[in-house]
Design brief:
- The chain has about 300 residues and is mainly α.
- Helix 2 packs antiparallel against helix 4 and helix 5 crosses helix 6.
- About 45% of the residues are buried.
- The protein is built from 13 helices and two strands, in the order βαααααααααααααβ.
- Strands 1-2 form a two-stranded antiparallel ribbon.
Amino acid sequence: MTVTGGALAAGERTARPSAALLADLAVRALCQEACLSPKPGLADRRGRGAHDDMDLPLLLASARALRPMFRSLAEAAERTPAGIERREELGRLSREGEAAMLRTTGGVNTHRGAVWALGLLVATAAGAADEREAAGRAARLAALPDRYLPARAPSHGERARRRYGVRGARGEAEAAFPHVVEVALPRLRRARAAGLPEEAARLDALLAVMSLLDDTCVLHRGGPEGLRVVRSGAGRVLAGGGAGTARGHAALAELDERCVARRLSPGGSADLLAAALFLDMVPWPEPVTRAGRKVLTCRR
């Protein structure tokens, strides 16, 4: 879609996406990730995967419950000064959003990791020129302390991070989401360019992350051996041509069986896929190529 407008200086950028749009895109990304099938060990259209406490309807309800939080985060990022004040306001809003999610799910932790990753990216997307700038801004926010963070028992992911000395969700954010920007997004776009169906492209992006990430959700449930199963299995699917080929699909089915049997759920990888889908949908401002007209919007 192309929109034309009044006089604009060369090099000026188009209007930033609204908070409402960013919230809608974040929810859409979570719903797309939830519906993507077949995901190894994860709840999807087929069933619960390796979980006994969540399914697709619950994931979709959880995603919708987070829309007000995402919008509040985007609005807060615009009205609060950069630095500690913004970090603490975003933290407060995220905790309120997580509480709303848990009320919706009856206490099931469906999207806590996504609240962190997507929340940061929603907050930084409005003022960024592209996904790399948004990820860089998110990294600077993630590195700041939050004086009002309540004391509570560490999450399963945090315990796994400490036990196994891996980066974890916070480290991923502080490093500017390398598995999103350098792994998932390029794989997703290469697969589309090669003519793969959208679902196969998304599955290959997920598998690319799974093959590389020290997923603390997997480490919590299966330790280093479980992580080896997930990473090597995802690598075999990709080496077989990806989810869109007969050989890759067979390897994917085998990995799914192993994950379910061992109760391995690569939830951290799923959160990062959702982050990639969100960044891919954001209508980043395009530079104006000449004074006067040509304002480009949504890439997809």
